[in-house]
Amino acid sequence: MPIYATNFSIAYTLGRKVSPFTCDGVPWQYVKAKGSEQNDPSSTLAWSDTTLSASASIPGEAKLTTQKDATIFTAASGASLTYYKDGSFLYAASPTSPLAKRERLRVEQEDLPWWEKAREVIENEYIYESGAVVADPVYGESTKKGTPYKRFQLAVPISETETKAFDVYAYGQAISLVNRRNIHEHDVIRLRASVQFHEQHQPHGQSLLVPWLNLFDVQKLT
After folding, report:
1. Which end of the chain has less Cβ packing within 10 Å, N or C?
2. Model pTM?
């Protein structure tokens, strides 16, 4: 990560000063966020040409709770740190931070199918899904940039008698993948994709967020 290329964008986006320091002869840059009180939580983001580092500190006592594969530490201020089994962690500086709201919503919606989850919970997440191809994939180009794609619809079973259709778009190398797999109408497939959303305009100035799938891998089941 080139230092000087990132300084302006980080400072501008976060609205915080980027400061230099040196560690073992290596130049670093950092930004720090902390409230005005001594016991307020704080976090630091630091980077060199080769390394990115982030840390968080929550002073005082913290309540420990658990959820699946994670421990959650919450201070009296509402600041929290969620540490996951795989070593990932989430830090929320306050109960009103966007991350804290997203995490609460994620837990609340954990048992919902991916298409019923809120955008802030599921967007850009990878999923595996199976279903039947509604019609042969067709070529197209995006309206804004003219990016080529191949599109088809996947009918996903949601009950013994019902299915729900989702648009699947293949871009770049995924187009070749669809061609190699020889995907056609009525094929039953299993795919790996990221969940995306587009805004669908409705009557009376209303709009609706509609999920679609950005294809990364696909296998024929029949």
Report:
1. C
2. 0.64
